[in-house]
Amino acid sequence: MMLLFDYAPIAMFLVLLLLLFLGVPIAFSLASVGIVFALMMWGLDSTALLTSATWGIMNNFTLIAIPLFILMSVLLEKTNIMSELFDAVYKWSGGLRGGLAITAIVVGAIIGAISGVVAAGVIGLGLIALPQMMRYRYNETLSLGSIMAGGTLGQLIPPSLNMVVYGAITGVSVSSLFAGGLSAGILLMLLFVAYILFKAYTKEDVAPALKKEERATLQEKFASLKSIFLPILLILVVLGSIFTGIATPTEGAGVGVLGTVIIGVLSKRLNWPKMKESIYESMKMSGMVGWILIGAAVFSAVFSGVGGNQFVSEMAANAPGGKWGILFFSLAFIIVLGMFLETMALIMLATPIITPVVVEAGFDPLWWAIIFMVVLQMAFLTPPFGFAIFYLKSAVGDKVSIGKIYRATIPFILIQLLAAILLIIFPELAVWLPKLLNK
After folding, report:
1. 177 Cβ partners below 8 Å, 6+ apart?
2. What are the sequence ranges of the domains in the chain?
3. pTM above 0.90, yes or no
4. What is the helix (H) or strand (E) element at residue 209, kind and residue range?
5. What angle do CA 198, 203, 208 make, to 5 degrees?
6. Residue 359 reports pLDDT greater than 80
7. Residue 182: which of 249, 121, 109, 89 has the closest Cα?
């Protein structure tokens, strides 16, 4: 039994990866591994540990924001706001080479700023933007990559569900996380746009501009702005209420839901059947997220109980290079986990292990949180289990092979890595906005 206990942390991860490769849903993979190892190590008495971990998740007030933001995301999808946004932004960028890809990035950022749900951005852009890109003979790799990159900006640009979870675990202010995520998200968006422009203008047939006769007139461009006025107003109200301290993130989520309903009613695109359908779908998605959080809490509690946290913390602390060695070990740990785990599960598992070590090494907790979130965004794109890959695959069906989608992620993963490096070299890029708002 002592031998089993010594190697339990490694065995837990190996069994977890085996279940994931076998196709077992991540929530039940995490929970089942935690329960089985707890019973093996401590017998029936371990049920108290498992129930307390579950209760801790269910009793966390901050996490109430998650179902509210999910409902807001579903309502946006039902009211077709994304398609109007895409059309409006493309009217202004159609004259540029790579205009459609740039539009995917910008609209992904706007949708992320409204809902904070990555699935909504990636799937929505896959259905709306990809057919247009194929019509204008865009390079397939650039098209697929820009859709996934734009859609995943919702992980970083507030309101981000993952930031809500991270703040609930660490006690870091969610409002400050949102502010730092906004500045880092804008940086990443600009890097994506710069890469698209570079590709488009160094090779003419990669992402051609619209022909002059197909471009929108100045009158059409200004007329299109009315379709983005209400969504932008919603962003300002939700984030403004949170940043100024008028509302907590949870209350801000409630304001967002109300605002989305008002937009849907005013535009006559939301009726009672769509409302019922939206509530039903958001309940299913919230239930899935809840089970992932509970499964991760159970796994994390048992992993900590068998010495897993201490094992990883000692590896980080003994990394060569002092505090910077600890930092780069921690980043590598998150990147490797991100190749296999869903992001919320990754936060639940990695945050209690790595964050205390990094903070103890002398790094600013808020700065580290933003770095964590930027690297975490890579997990959406990193094969073999990058969730943005599967979201896009579900949207395109058999039209595009999974191999092509995998290849399309590579340049955008490298850009995200560059963003993380820039934030490490220039830490003010991550924390200037939270500091400004907290004055």
Report:
1. 158, 160, 163, 166, 167, 366, 369, 370, 373
2. 60-270+306-438
3. no
4. none
5. 90
6. yes
7. 109
